[in-house]
Amino acid sequence: MLRFRLAALAAVAATVALTGCETMKGGDPSALLGAGGSAFKAMSLSDGDVVAMSNKSCEAMDAENQVAPANSAYARRLATVVKAMPTSVNGQTANYKVYQTKDVNAWAMANGCIRVYSGLMDLMNDDELRGVIGHEIGHVALGHSKGRMQTAYATSALRGLAAAGGGAVAQLSQSQAGDLAEKFVHAQFSQSQESAADDYSFDLLTERKLERKGLVTSFEKLAKLSGGSSGPSLMSSHPPSSERAARMQKRLDAGK
């Protein structure tokens, strides 16, 4: 946890430094101090604050995207795919929905909000889809999503987002929540976090006696598509998808 916290803190520090350059160009050093305070305050957000921010952010994303109806083919398929997957993560009820978009992506927030894009479902078979979803759940279970939200908040705070504390988080406007959600979805995890989430998914599938080969072939498919990626996507990963596929295959061959 210490290593992760230091990494997250470093990310916020980098944000402050970049914003500081812009602030100093404006000739107002006091603004830099205020921005820095807001950014570093983000690192002390409680689990409750992060969940509240995730609730607002997820609501904003749902409002901005076309959510597949419960009786649609996509929603029914996802319900079948996740039937053997966790119903809660870190004490938060898992809430699975499909966004009808050609984008190849999926993400999960600390409040249990798990969103899968129809473009990803079109690309993956059920075993592969479970592998990817297990990976996203891993980010939440391992605390990565909380850190990602903290960093997203820090960059938003520098642009005037309401400060945390005193119930202000729950009072985020729709536009502020949308801005926060966009920063969360566009942010990248570190290489060590991605590898840890891969391992979490592998172990989760093993524990639930589900097919693990899909975790390998899903990355192989993403590797083939990586050349034409644009915007937030599972293909924009590090280490490269091909290396991740090889590492999962190695674990599969070892039987553990």
TrEMBL record:
In this chain the Peptidase M48 domain maps to 75-251
Report the cofactors.
Zn(2+)
Which CDD domains does the entry mention? M48C_loiP_like
Ranges where the record places region Disordered: 224-256
PROSITE patterns xref list:
PROKAR_LIPOPROTEIN (PS51257)
Q: Which domain of life is it from?
A: Bacteria
GO cellular component labels: membrane
Per the UniProt entry, what are the Gene Ontology biological process annotations, in alphabetical order? proteolysis involved in protein catabolic process
The entry's keywords: Hydrolase, Metal-binding, Metalloprotease, Protease, Signal, Zinc
Return the Low complexity bias intervals.
Answer: 231-242
Similarity field:
Belongs to the peptidase M48 family.
Q: What is this protein called?
A: M48 family metallopeptidase
Instruction: Provide the species name.
Output: Xenophilus arseniciresistens
